Amino acid sequence: MEDLQSALLERGLTVSTIPEKGRSLVTTRDFSPGEVIISQEPYASVPNNSSVDSRCDGCLKSSNLKRCSACQVVWYCGSTCQKSEWNLHRLECHALSRLNKDRQKSVTPSIRLMVKLYLRRKLQSEKIIPTTPADNFKLVEDLVSHMSDIDEKQLVLYAQMANLVNLILQWPEISIKEIAENFSKLACNAHTICDSELRPLGTGLYPVISIINHSCLPNSVLVFEGRLAVVRAVQHIPKGTEVLISYIETAGSTMTRQKALKEQYLFTCRCPRCIKVGQYDDIRESAILEGYRCKDNGCSGLLLRDSDDTGFICQQCRLLRNKEEIKQIASELNFLSDQAIKSTSSGHYQEATSMYKMIEKLQTKLCHSFSINLMRTREALLKNLMELQEWREALAYCRLTIPVYERIYPGFHPLLGLQYYTCGKLEWLLGDTEDAIKSLTKAVDILRITHGTNTLFMKELLIKLEEAHAEASYKLSSKMSSKIYPLDYFCKIDVCYH
Questions:
Q1: Quick one: 61 and 185 in the same domain?
Q2: Where's the SET domain (predicted)?
Q3: Are residues 322 and 430 in the same domain?
Q4: Is residue 432 domain-shared with residue 393, that is, in the same domain?
């Protein structure tokens, strides 16, 4: 830990113990918005490969892939990634090649991640690959497992997974119990690796990043550049402040967030948002985001459950909305949602779009205009309409989501920036250059803080904005030229001259 503390101090950070939180990452100097607080390569990582989608084990890209001819499990995009992974994969390849085909099908990304974790420990102990203060197995051992908080069903699952890892490695010195405990550590500490547009690519374990605690009002954001995890400040962080990121999707009521954190990470959040649970402002916000709207279309009141539990009463006009009516609409929505998801996954986008529009119609009767469920439906419509290349309608739905994004996310949130980016791309495609400039500018203002400016994604975004400005200038100059020099003006000059 002393070596890690020394390495962190050079970056303006230290590890401190905070009551009820345990280890925490704290600043020893000020950090500005957009500044990188810390970055780390994974101790171990795997792509989210499936039977229909594969990615390179080295860079997580999905193009020009070739399968390892020996183990038939791992993919690489070329010799560069293959060579960079060779020290570890030669051991993994030998272990996986011993399995029959049925066993190989059971090797999920989680199983592979655990196997690679132990193989990396072996290579470091044999000094085949180096260790550093921020890259060693001791950091993995120091992670919290929460084994005492896990139910029996989950323990049995971890034991079954540990048995398979033990079968793959065939190392008698490691116990099933130890492997099961490490699976529990992965569940609480591993991170989903995403691309610049927050689409999941794989899973990685970043032991130093894992020291950073959660808040539903974080002062930092975790993004990825390839497999590199990068934590950036999204606001001014004074010296002596705990660095905080969000572990979960923060859009939703306090109860929804608390439930997600308890189930996945086994703790109760006590951030500034969560300590307001049960207070009027929190109840009101929950009713707007996840509750129901007044039956009177002219009323904007929110509904709360009545004391007799027969329905929900509007807090503005006191109109009662019957519980049975809500149940009936909710039942229809569940049925349609299942059908829409099936249609989308089958590639039947036109059929799915029709269903989502039916869902939207029902939700507008049932939900507040800032409803999370209504927003998700419109997000699904946006994606399906883009697949169908119905650009104008897709833009309309994208614009409908923006006010909700602005309400549920803080000013510098990558999802808000990416939604503005989508809006800007659609506007530019449709020739709405002035609107595109406004949307792309808002996207840049947010994403330069969350993503930095040196990634390929951000460079392409900045180029798009420059091109949009150039196109707007050209259109303006052309318009001005046509006003000053109409065609018949030149004709008149020619006649007079001759």
A1: yes
A2: 11-248
A3: no
A4: no
Q: Are residues 282 and 381 in the same domain?
A: yes
Residue 2 lies in a domain: no
Split into its structural domains, the chain has a count of 3
pLDDT score recorded for residue 24: 97
Looking at 133, 159, 192, the residue that finishes a domain is 192
Tokens representing 282?
């929190």
**Residues 188, 322: one domain?**
no
Query: Is residue 385 located within the same domain as residue 478?
Result: no
Q: Is residue 206 part of a domain?
A: no
DSSP class of residue 11 equals T
Site of tokens 């007044």:
294
Q: How would residue 351 be classed by pLDDT, with cut points 50, 70 and 90?
A: very high
Tokens standing for residue 314: 């509007």
For residue 63, tell me if it sits in a domain: yes
Distance CA 402, CA 6 (A): 44
* Three-class DSSP category at 237: strand
Residue ranges with strand state E in 77-236: 191-194, 200-205, 213-214, 220-225, 228-233
Within a domain: 205: no
Range 200-217 burial, b when 16+ CB lie within 10 A, else e? ebbbbbbbbbbbbbbbbe
> CA triplet 456, 462, 468: central angle to 5 degrees?
135
Residues 73 and 186 in one domain: yes
Full residue range of the structural domain in which residue 299 is found: 278-404
What DSSP line would sit under 150-187, residue for residue? Answer: S-HHHHHHHHHHHHHHHHHH--TTS-HHHHHHHHHHHH
Which pTM value belongs to this model?
A: 0.91
CB 292 within 8 A of CB 303: yes
Place of tokens 């390849």: 93
What length does the chain have? 498
For residue 239, give the DSSP letter.
T
pLDDT in tens, 62-107: 999 999 999 989 999 999 999 999 999 999 999 999 998 888 889 9
Q: Are residues 318 and 372 in the same domain?
A: yes
Q: Say which amino acid occupies 415.
A: L
Q: Taking the C-alpha atoms of 259, 153, 157 and 109 in order, what is their torsion angle to the nearest 10 degrees?
A: -20
Amino acid at 350: Q
The 10s digit of each residue's pLDDT in 290-348 is 989 888 888 888 888 888 888 899 989 999 998 888 999 999 999 999 999 999 999 99
In 3D space, the residue among 237, 233, 211 whose CA is nearest the CA of residue 222 turns out to be 233
Per-residue pLDDT band at 478 (split at 50, 70, 90) = confident
**pLDDT tens digits, 109-153:** 999 999 999 999 999 999 999 999 999 999 999 999 999 999 999
| pLDDT score, position 395 | 98
Q: Provide the 3-class DSSP secondary structure of residue 55.
A: coil
* Amino acid (1-letter code) at residue 86: W
What is the CATH classification number for the domain harbouring 303? 1.25.40.10
Per-residue model confidence (pLDDT) at position 113:
97
Kindly state the average pLDDT of the residues 354-381: 95
